[in-house]
Amino acid sequence: MCGRARCTLRADDIPRACNRTGAPVGTINMDRYRPSYNIAPGSNLPVVRRADGSDGDGFLLHSMKWGLIPKFTKKTEKPDFYKMFNARSESITEKVSFRRLLPKNRCLVAVEGFYEWKKDGSKKQPYYIHFKDGRPLVFAALYDSWESSEGLDTSSEILYTFTILTTSSSSALQWLHDRMPVILGNKESTDTWLKGSSSSKFDMMLKPYEGSDLVWYPVTPAMGKPTVDGPECIKEIQLKTDGNPISNFFLRKEIKEQSNMEEKSLFDDSVKTNPLKGLKEEPIKEIKKEGESDLEQKNSCDISDLANQPKRLKQEHVTADDSGIQSSVKEGNHNAKSSISILANENTAKRQKTEDIEEFVADLKSAPHRIDKLGTIAVKKGNVKDAGGKQPTLFSYFGKK
């Protein structure tokens, strides 16, 4: 069906769009035409028709109301322009309202595009359909005249109206709607429709337009109101993905599969770059603790080796100097090795001297009969002389002490 259209063409562009360029074209009521992006039934649109009584090249550009009001309609009846704004091309030879118009009341309607709605439950999404190159679409149409007793037309009591023929939808547009307007895509078809006799085989041209140059895109649902007009009516919009439950099912399935593939890819990358990331958290902590323990053991071994300390010294109390040495080793000081060697040698020498004195005293207490020998040792170690320059005896040594 075709219930909304865009026609912002200038009056002199319409005959050219309908392939009427050779002979001059007269005009009727063109002052009523108002270009619009959102033309609805009841609005005035220019149509190209043959001049009255003309069987040749006489044509008129006539502004008529969209929505056929048959001539036999009662004069007192209020016209309903939405009742017959479309006519099924398959039945125009059967219905009285259209059959009597075929011989002489054929016309052409030129627009830049039309709108169609896609139903999705309770929602309807409009689409704008047009030629890719922007050229006007030319529809096959029928017109009639009706005389009203109330004088609806200010210039006369005769009202001219038209209806646009429709056919089954093309293969490319079947997803959108089952009907579409009859589009006459070349000069031959427009000439046949305007100038052909009543015996012409119109059914050969009243077919769906299958050209690939007919394109479409979604537009704002706000244009569903006839009062909404302007370039925003044909502005393309982005549709939300939550409209169609069936399409959402496949979309969710596609997203889920894609997510699984991404997770697999990330897992593969993590294994390649860092195999430990594929393990559980607890083994990681254990490994870390074991590693730290091994490192501490290694550091402690290095300290003992570098210091070259005897085993008995390990059980003694650790001094401040020793703890400083250990801390410097743990912190990774590159001078720790040399510092440990020097301090360890000094400590060893001090301990050795102390131990010799303690051993001397212990032997003295435990064995008095070795006084001579010990005195000799004391003299040899101390090398002590008295004020007179004489070698002191063992008794004089202990007397001084």
From TrEMBL:
- Residue intervals passing through the bilayer: none
Could you list this entry's UniProt keywords, alphabetically sorted.
Answer: Covalent protein-DNA linkage, DNA damage, DNA-binding, Hydrolase, Lyase, Protease
Q: Protease among the record's keywords?
A: yes
State where composition is biased (Basic and acidic residues): 262-271, 278-299
Region of interest called Disordered, as start-end residue ranges on this chain: 262-337
Pfam family name, one = SRAP
Compositionally biased region (Polar residues): 324-337
Do the record's keywords include Membrane? no
According to the lineage, what is the superkingdom? Eukaryota
Family indicated by similarity: Belongs to the SOS response-associated peptidase family.
> Per its record, how is this protein called by name?
Embryonic stem cell-specific 5-hydroxymethylcytosine-binding protein
Source organism: Xanthoceras sorbifolium
